[in-house]
Amino acid sequence: MGKYQLMNVADGRIFEDKGWTLDDPEGKTPSLVRALYEQKQLHVGDDGLGLYKFADWMPIKKVLANPSCPITYKSEKLAKRLGLNNLYITFSGWWPAKGANMTTCSFKETEAYSVCARLGEAQKDQVLVVASAGNTARAFAKVCSDNGIPLLLCVPQDNIKALWFDKPLNPCVKLITTASGSDYFDAIQLSNYVCELEGFLAEGGAKNIARRDGMSTTMLSAVTTIGRIPDYYFQAVGSGTGAIAAWEANLRFLEDGRFGANKAHLFVSQNKPFVPMYEAWKQDSRPMLPYDPDQARKDAAEICAPVLSNRKPPYSLAGGLYDALKDTQGDIFAISNAEANEAKKLFEETEGIDIYHAAAVALGSLIQSIHINKVKADDVIMLNITGGGEKHFMETHKIHYLEPSHIFPMGFTKEDVSRVMEALMKK
What we know:
The protein is α/β, with parallel strands linked by helices and 427 residues long. Helix content is 34%, strand content 17%. The protein is globular, with a radius of gyration of 20 Å.
């Protein structure tokens, strides 16, 4: 397991992790903290370890049960259709024939296995709190249920259809929701109120090094499979945390020295009409632009990939997506529902497996990049397919759904949350 120190990205200050450090206590400006691993050259363990085969570059204290891992392979049929000679697909989901065994069908499992493995003795009596638009909640629920870790999920009511599982969950996992018509930001606000109460632990989102370094296993899979850092990295983003993680992994590979000296251009995409980071980026604005909350909820309700609807992403702060795009000469694309649906159909037709709309948005941006000559036929391209195989999974498994313990109405207050949670915890 990787020994590491923490670095404040804004000022470079290096300090020790207190066990669940999310921010630099001496930091003067908003900044992510980054893990600096003692092991500079990555040793890849046995495949049976799942994503823990990359433990050298993970801030974990233990190994959990039933770990999965992204897989990377060189595309033939999709690559041929697109006119690409070096297209590598990193697939997270359910595709046993390819060696992909994520039962939640989403790369969010990489976050959950890493974050939960960071929990130590100091956190053992606390309930982990996770806000999610769907896939992250499903992943944390699976991992916490399998490993007996107390978990409270905060999810918009309109998204709970994403909380399906192949078996009933351990009672240590509970769900509360914000009312129909709310969005991911409302769920985050709910989780923030809960975390002010005694006995609850904020997972931390993008600020948690374990979340980012778990997600970075997509890039670790790709680079160690390809044998070099790719020229381009494509992914759809809601928060941008996965792309930040890929950038940080790339920087570690530069220190490793065995996989080339280039930085992969981060080409990320949002789903129109919900495109706040795209709008800011196209104006070369580090600060996010004003976005009316009601309009944001309306736009979020229209997109085919609701998991991409984060109103408060880690875009502007030091070490966030803006810095990652600048450092890699990256770009953001805006993909319509129609483009995503076409891409989704194309992937299943050529590669033989269904994918989520978010992954289809990423493929849509690759197609767009080809059309405008942003990428060339011989470029080494990594396409991060962040979820797939759900249709395949549903055909062979009985499905169970997680029901909420409480639904909070719009306009809930801190006092409302305190009163409800006190009653729930007595049950």
